[in-house]
């Protein structure tokens, strides 16, 4: 496999890294799913408000929870990006190790949805040269974030709403989670957050439109 990759690995340039989007848009992103409880709840909320979002999924969670949830995400017009196979920092990973991990997850998403994966978000936002090269080889764009209400820090729904109201800015890519011990608070906060943002005149988009 390496011999096929070698010419691409020797090429120049890096993948684009997106931190913010267009003015007057907000990009809600949900990491670490698909989760059998919380992802379907978020899908329903997005439907109720007719908004699009982006979900960065883990390969091992697709294997554990089946492909129905990510199929539903695609049917509803959301973007499904890769968050790698497992939730490990790739900070010290070489190109081939990173490439194999991304490809494994890419195959899982592609086989389930027939959709080409465009976006990748590295676990913890950790990026290495090897990972950049792997992303370029597999033709991924990298999405980080410009705002998070830090929903992984055991914050209540009320705190998540407050943080968002105070700190969010036009064009923000917002990091949230649809899996984990605090995901129920994220789900609880979401309707009020979406209502606040739409009343402010923001369009809530998925990253395809970034
Ligand atoms: Zn994550």
Can you tell me about this structure?
Helix content is 44%, strand content 14%. The protein has one domain: TIM Barrel. It is built from eight helices and eight strands; from the N terminus they run αββαβααβαβαβαβαβ. The strands form two sheets. Strands 2, 3, 4, 7 and 8 form a five-stranded parallel beta sheet that branches. Strands 1-6-5 form a three-stranded parallel beta sheet, with no helix packed on it. The protein starts with a helix and ends in a 6-residue tail after the last strand. Zinc ion binds at residues 31-32, 83, 87, 123.
Topology-level CATH name? TIM Barrel
Main β sheet profile: 5 strands, parallel
What top-tier CATH class fits best? Alpha Beta
Mean of residue pLDDT? 93
Bound molecules: zinc ion
Query: What's the SSE pattern?
Result: HEEHEHHEHEHEHEHE
Radius of gyration: 17 Å
Distance between the termini: 33 Å
Q: How much of the polypeptide forms β-strand, as a percent range?
A: 5-15%
Unreliable segments (pLDDT under 50, ≥5 consecutive)?
A: none
Structural class: alpha/beta
Write down the overall geometry: globular
Number of strands: 8
- Could you say what the CATH architecture is? Alpha-Beta Barrel
Give the count of structural domains.
1
Q: Look at the structure and name the CATH superfamily.
A: Glycoside hydrolase/deacetylase
Number of helices, where a helix is a run of at least 4 consecutive DSSP H or I residues: 8
